[in-house]
User: Which sequence fits this backbone?
């Protein structure tokens, strides 16, 4: 098998191509927007599926965030993840409250009156 030569000598300054970092963060921003919109949909519509979509896309947004872009918007990505988790918790809150009411019931099956 013939050996393929490197296309240029890296020791020659004329053949060196300077590194330019990417300026756009397109992948993470779409996940960020989906997480934010579905978190709001979860809070207003009490839709659990939208809550799970918000958590998933917020995790994708945080994990696909570049190190160079974290200085500009890293905090907002983490706050979106907290918002998604809070929205999901709020959508499951009626089931949690009903579960605690079942546990508080006495042996007679009559719910215990809440003191106000």
Assistant:
């Amino acid at each position: 098998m013939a050996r393929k030569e490197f296309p240029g000598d890296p020791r020659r300054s004329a053949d060196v191509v300077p590194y330019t970092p990417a300026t756009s963060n397109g992948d993470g921003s779409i996940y960020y927007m989906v997480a934010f919109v579905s978190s709001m949909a979860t809070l207003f519509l009490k839709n659990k599926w939208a809550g799970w979509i918000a958590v998933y896309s917020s995790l994708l947004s945080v994990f696909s965030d570049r190190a160079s872009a974290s200085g500009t918007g890293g905090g907002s990505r983490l706050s979106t993840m907290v918002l998604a988790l809070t929205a999901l918790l709020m959508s499951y809150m009626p089931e949690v409250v009903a579960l605690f009411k079942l546990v508080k019931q006495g042996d007679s099956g009559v719910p215990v009156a809440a003191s106000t």
Summary: Residues 70-104 form the longest helix (35 residues). Residues 26-65+75-101 form one domain. The mean pLDDT is 78. DSSP finds three helices and no strands in the chain.
